[in-house]
Specification:
The chain is of the alpha+beta class. It is built from 9 helices and 10 strands. Strand 2, helix 3 and strand 3 form a beta-alpha-beta unit.
Length: about 325
Amino acid sequence: MAAVPITADVGGLPPEFGLIGRHFRPLAGPAALDLEDDAAVLAPPPGRELVMAADTMVSGVHYLPDDPAEGVGQKLLRVNLSDLAAMAAEPLGYLLAVSAPADTPDTWFAGFAAGLAADQAEFGLSLLGGDTTSTPGPITLSLTIIGHVAPGQAVRRRGARPGDEVWVTGTIGDGALGLAVSLGKLADPSGFLRGRYCVPSPRLGLPLAGRVSAAIDVSDGLLQDLGHLCRLSGCGAEVEAASVPMSEAARVAGPGWLAQRLGGGDDYELLLAVPEGRGAALAEACAARGVPLTRIGRFVAGPGAVRVLGEDGQPLAIGRHGWSHF
């Protein structure tokens, strides 16, 4: 894990090498070469294609500065694993870049690494390398995930067709409501919503290849991410608001949070285009893996617009469809 020196110790190694040795070398797998070199040497599994994605999290933007460091490490890894899940890929390893102020407590790095270690054990991957740098702030974390898939079997965002049904895993809106809880705007006696915001659940291992026309993970908001599928596929979509699955905690929050649930993001559930008549079998296969799957609408002919329908079948006015990165 090559590093840009922060300050050099007289007659010794720069202090970031100690940081790497204490917290990140224990996370490294064989391909990382003990984090002694500038790059890893990785052989993909025989007969598989590599799938790669990258995400960045900035303190105060993607997580709150006082969020537990362990959860920050888990969220960083999991949002990247969610990108693999959407393409029906399996994880192999990851590269990590950490930019932090020089006065960041060592205990923060210890907690951050502990979160990564817990999820490496759960999801079966290891650290391959990366970089550490000093910054005036805020803490900025970037992770590149590497996975693998059978040749030609990666599920794309492009491919939905009019008549396909819109299905989603899990429940929608918990991440947005969890952020509201974190900001003191909503009560959460059980802690469920806050937990869903801080540590999402990537839907790895679902049998999507050959069963779905297109897929994306819900990171920026259900409606906005559905719009991405529509735009790339040259069609529109209709969502039945009453069919969008919600957790019991979200139900308690009440109907006034509908717009936030549909447009808030941070759910990291999978949004799927499924050919008509194939949804029930896919839902059964997902349920066998402990993941509920719900039909919430369909793709329609026309420009890439997404409409939300009320129980009377009439369009609802939803002002914000999702999160913008700029």
